[in-house]
Amino acid sequence: MLTYSFEKRGNDSLYEYLYKRIKEDILSGTLTADEKLPSKRNLAKHLDISTITVENAYNQLMAEGYLYSVSKKGFYVNDISSQMPIAPKRPERIPDVRDKKNSYFTDFTDNATRPDSFPFTIWNKLMRLTMSDYADELMVRSPSGGILLLREAIADYLYQFRGMHVTPEQIVVGAGTEYLYNMIIQLLGQDKTYAVEDPGYQKISHIYDANRVTCVPVALDESGVNTNALNETQADILHLSPSHHFPTGIVTPINRRYELLTWACAKKNRYIIEDDYDSEFRLVGKPIPALQSIDTTGKVIYMNTFSKSLSSTIRISYMVLPKELCEKYNHHLSFYSCTVSNFEQYTLYQFIERGHLEKHINRMRNHYRIQRDRILTCIRNHPYFSRVKIKEEHAGLHFLLEIDTQYSDEELIKKAAQKGIRITCLSQYYRNRTTSSSHTIIINYSGIQPERIPESIQLLFDGIFSDPTCHTTN
Amino acid sequence: MLTYSFEKRGNDSLYEYLYKRIKEDILSGTLTADEKLPSKRNLAKHLDISTITVENAYNQLMAEGYLYSVSKKGFYVNDISSQMPIAPKRPERIPDVRDKKNSYFTDFTDNATRPDSFPFTIWNKLMRLTMSDYADELMVRSPSGGILLLREAIADYLYQFRGMHVTPEQIVVGAGTEYLYNMIIQLLGQDKTYAVEDPGYQKISHIYDANRVTCVPVALDESGVNTNALNETQADILHLSPSHHFPTGIVTPINRRYELLTWACAKKNRYIIEDDYDSEFRLVGKPIPALQSIDTTGKVIYMNTFSKSLSSTIRISYMVLPKELCEKYNHHLSFYSCTVSNFEQYTLYQFIERGHLEKHINRMRNHYRIQRDRILTCIRNHPYFSRVKIKEEHAGLHFLLEIDTQYSDEELIKKAAQKGIRITCLSQYYRNRTTSSSHTIIINYSGIQPERIPESIQLLFDGIFSDPTCHTTN
To answer: Using the beta-carbon criterion (under 8 Å), do A81 and B252 form an inter-chain contact?
Structure first.
């Protein structure tokens, strides 16, 4: 008869402890296949516990498949083919991929928003309002494309600030543009060829690569994507940022826009994905109108994010689908749940509806203008100013700095790093590199601490213009 | 000379209005390609506005590509190849895909959680604490897999309640399991063959289909996935819910689990995705241990969600990757930003850390037990009880009701619908249907209003057992 002492059972209940011990005996082979277990009553008597305790343990072992019962006969041990080792894993800790930026004094590659620029007080107030005013709505499942109130607010915003006429139903809200790109690939097809700007924002290519879809780079000229180069590819889909290209800063002019739309109209399956990621932050004049706003043919998928305008840690983006694709989405992909929680959707809805988004963007545009001017002033007043050329400083949250130097881009990056300044060069954003060195640094300034600007520029210039004979001492 | 009246400019500034009118004249062809515009000074004088106003308008038109300037000569109209119509779109409203469930008195297909079961007061309190205590952390970008505090809390929870030994680094947090399935496909490869249980949870197949990956159904026997049937496929990846299969309710016993692990170990690229979606809600005895907890070979990807245990509107799920895949994720996919906002991650972290999750699950388990017992009592006390058979009622949030009937499953569904009751039948969950009618209804009870239970069962039975001669009158 099975004999277990219950003294060492710790916090386990009697039944749990009994269940564990019998399970151990089965797994260790002490109890063998088809061995009959004592009846519940006999085992209870033997162990001086109640029959119900034994019954609970037997039932759990039955449910997990360790025992089987034969009607009117009793309980038997199942045949466990223990080919597998059963010792619990004690995995080593796997080193996490962590950002190395903290070791730099200033990181000009970082395009994050500054934490202190987030409208925390207003956002908190609206979160409280959401909890109290939308308690019921919060518990109702969101449509796949997002709650209607938010999509209506976004449609109004796009009409007022981007000159776009879209219906709320065309809008799909998702947890970040990266997620939405994955949806677009599923919507348009993994068998299509996706063209990306070269140079361009690398994450886009990473997403196409991770989905193993064919991704071809298309060269730019001074007006953006070169139409001849595009026609030479097999591309079905073109991804571009016509209002402000990263990293070159090119604004695609109106005639090139029409050329690209003409390209898209030439074949049924062709589409243009317009990534309008920082159009709000043009620092002179008015925002450049969206390509979508002149598209009368349903060929442009418009995409934008609140991660740029609000905070990098707010994961809410949206896309506007042309009518035909909208119907295709509803038919094939609306089984997907919306990836943004209701709570944040209602909070953002109120933020836009009450005019806070507009105010915040205006405030941030001023802030970025001041930030940019501070950096430009430091550069212009620097003794080495004659050896640099500032480019594309009027739009978006970065500009270019062309350096008069003999050093390769790799050497420039290394020399800046030795002074605690992290930079990237234009050449790094090419998929098809024609020249290995562009001597052009990208200055992202949205996340730079204002008080560090003068020292950062000094360190950068000290680094990149340092004499080769002395840079080993740094 | 260009002549515009500024009287009708409405809210536009002078420069905005001038910019719009010149743009219109270029687009309409009134101003033609290479036509020279008046100098800024002359136009300003002519229109009685300041030179700076004209300059701003010209600059904006330059930035958008409508004008070009020639040094020391002046401004010229660009050649706009206006092949495209430019009238703004006035799209019709596209009908949104909306849930039809509101038209039913009771929806037994709905597996959502009840809004009133969500621990709103505690969650709100924790949200407030998050705003005050984690203000700085909220603005720091989350690692791709989620904030470490939350992943540590999940690892602890899995150790305590699922007997799993995992490190926080193995955990990837995402906005819903659907999103995580997309990540798994990118991680394991679009070229792999994914096996799904047949019958099974349909959304999983939809996701594989939307990604155009090969998805093969594998037949079940009474122990779950049939290993022989599995071996006959070319499957690399097996997706299953061993602790509680949907919709059959099967618990995969320990010997079958070992067989499946043995299958996975036979080839390098084979993996098992364990979807543990409602393991917390076993209503008798202890939860069934996770398959992951007996896997010593790194072949099981474990997946779970807080949408089941907390609320359908909380979009937070997670997966636990075996060490090797974890390194692959870090290398290839950690460029993806985490899709759950920091705010909800910190709130959930506190919810788990302070013991609320455990308490909530215990409370919900009792709630669901009462809910289930109410429904079972109504069924057992019904005059038609002799014509039904209750199956798999001990686990998860649904059970099966086998009906003694001549009607097809389509007819049963229609007859129930005529009484305002929405149901699905087991046969609908097959990819390879062997029989067209199973006469087995799936009763999801987590979202049913308790006060409607007696009437719902009455209506259901009235419907499905109604005489064919009278059901036209309903």
So the answer is: no
* Nearest CA among B256, B469, B212 for reference residue A211: B212
Q: Counting every residue, how long is chain B?
A: 474
Q: Which residues of A touch B261 (CB under 8 A)?
A: 84
**Alpha helices per DSSP H over B105-222:** 120-133, 135-138, 148-162, 177-188, 202-210
Do A298 and A324 form a contact (C-beta atoms < 8 A)? Answer: yes
A93 token code pair: 């800790």
Tell me what pLDDT residue B309 has: 81
Contacts of B120 in chain A (CB under 8 A): 131, 135
pLDDT digits (tens, 9 = 90+) for A143-191: 999 999 999 999 999 998 888 999 999 999 999 999 999 999 999 999 9
Say if CB B440 and CB B94 are below 8 A apart: no
Contact between chains at B323 and A203 (C-beta distance less than 8 A) = no
For residue B86, the model assigns a pLDDT of: 44
A65–B311: do the CB atoms touch at under 8 Å?
no
Q: Predicted ipTM?
A: 0.85
* pLDDT < 70: residue spans in chain B: 81-102, 434-436, 468-474
pTM: 0.87
> Residue B252 and residue A88: Cβ atoms within 8 Å?
no
Q: Alpha-carbon distance B231 to B227, whole Å?
A: 6
> A42, A182, A105, A8: which is closest to A458 by C-alpha?
A105
How many contacts does A have with B, using Cβ atoms within 8 A? 284
Phi/psi of residue A273, each to 5°?
A: -100, 115
**CA–CA dist A193, A270 (Å, integer):** 10
Candidate from A191, A203, A258 with C-beta closest to B81: A258
